[in-house]
Write a structure and sequence with these properties.
Blueprint: H1 4-38, H2 40-46, H3 52-62, E1 75-78, E2 82-85, E3 122-127, H4 130-133, H5 143-150, E4 154-158, H6 166-180, E5 184-189, H7 191-196, E6 208-212, E7 215-219, H8 226-232, H9 238-254, H10 257-278, E8 282-287, H11 303-314, E9 319-321, H12 323-331, H13 344-360
Parallel strand pairs: 3-4, 3-5, 5-8, 8-9
Antiparallel strand pairs: 1-2, 6-7
Helix pairs in contact: 5-13, 6-10, 10-11
Length: 365
């Protein structure tokens, strides 16, 4: 009888050659992918605004020399939220010399707030992204600081942090409410916040929630440190990163990506409102107009605004659209920044509109 092992040798050789060929092809493609993401010209053409690999690769490109600093010099790594404002900043160089101060708890501004809250004190906690935080303006020009001047008998606590999505706001709220015991939780909503909820990397590595039935499941915690992200760059496949970038782009064009954005935003904002109430605070939402929204001349609700206001109505949460106020002022000749962040004028207008809203809703005396 013929030896079975001899009969199988040609087949084994064919499989072995094919395996070697696939490995070689994979190495060639991986090398090409690494060249593509390292080339400024090529990466600038293929990087997208929404996919996670583009943000992570952008961060790695800015840290080619091994630097571990986060996006802004006053940021620090946070194991749960990704990044936070470093506490104890004293007129730090920021925003073209405008300066930045933070208190011992990492809230913007120099004022300290007693923990636990003293009897008879009324507090409003602001949660939001860079517009609430006040990127590109000095400490005294943020709408939080200007609200404090308009409401001298109310403590205004600015928990805004640049780049945050609703997921990070919710996690920050869970940390802050038991300690600071605010009477009102004011959520500063910017349209872009909802897009950030889908990713585990943006300005830096961050957590995210996934919807699981009626509940939210937290992923990505603890958030890796900058040193860990840099160390992993040699083990990660750039070819897989390119596939993921292409997949997300296809989903945005032909899939239901926006529907998932809305569903996750609905779940997160609803959870924030309910947990604020459970902590003894009254929740409210303020829709902050930004970028192209400031160019729309009509005061009618935009689709994104309508979605959030309907959600707030369903949950019996007072909500304010600030854009009509900006539109009316623009008709009187005011000029607003539709590129980048608000300036002092926009913050001043927002502060007045928010304080009027709080009084109308009996959220402040």
């Amino acid at each position: 009888m013929p030896d079975a092992s001899l009969a199988s040798r040609p087949r084994f050789r064919r499989v072995a050659r094919f395996t070697v060929y696939l490995c070689f092809l994979g190495l060639v493609l991986e090398g090409a992918a690494r060249w593509a993401v390292s080339s400024d010209m090529v990466f600038g053409r293929i990087a997208g605004p929404y996919d996670e690999p583009s943000w992570r690769l952008n961060w790695l490109r800015r840290h080619r020399g091994g630097e571990t600093a986060l996006r802004l010099p006053f940021d620090r790594h946070h194991p749960v939220r990704g990044w936070s404002l470093a506490p104890g900043q004293r007129s730090a160089e920021a925003f073209g010399g405008k300066g930045l101060t933070s208190n011992s708890e990492g809230l913007r501004g120099s004022r300290e707030f007693a923990v636990p809250k003293p009897a008879g004190v009324r507090r409003i906690a602001l949660f939001g992204d860079s517009f609430t935080f006040g990127e590109d303006v000095g400490d005294d020009d943020t709408f939080a600081a200007q609200m404090a001047r308009l409401l001298p008998d109310v403590e205004i606590l600015n928990f805004g942090v640049h780049g945050y999505g609703h997921d990070q706001m919710l996690l920050y709220m869970r940390e802050a409410l038991p300690r600071f015991q605010p009477d009102v939780v004011l959520i500063g909503h910017v349209t872009d916040d909802a897009l950030r909820n889908l990713n585990t990397f943006r300005d830096f590595a961050k957590p995210r929630f996934r919807r699981s039935g009626e509940s939210l499941q937290l992923e990505g915690v603890p958030v890796p440190t900058p040193e860990m992200v840099l160390a992993a760059r040699f083990r990660e496949s750039r070819l897989l990163d390119l596939f993921e970038m292409a997949r997300v782009r296809i989903e945005w064009r032909w899939g239901d990506r926006m529907a998932e954005v809305d569903r996750l935003m609905d779940a997160l904002l609803t959870t924030m409102a309910r947990e604020a109430r459970a902590a003894g605070a009254r929740p409210a939402i303020v829709l902050l107009p930004a970028w192209n929204e400031l160019r729309v001349p009509s005061t009618a609700p935009l689709s994104g605004e309508e979605f959030v206001t309907q959600l707030a109505r369903r949950e019996s949460v007072p909500s304010l659209r600030l854009r009509p106020l900006f539109v009316e002022r623009a008709r009187l000749g005011a000029e607003f920044q539709s590129v980048g962040h608000w300036g002092a004028l926009e913050h001043r207008l927002a502060a007045g509109g928010i304080v009027d809203f709080l009084r109308r809703e009996a959220l402040v005396p």
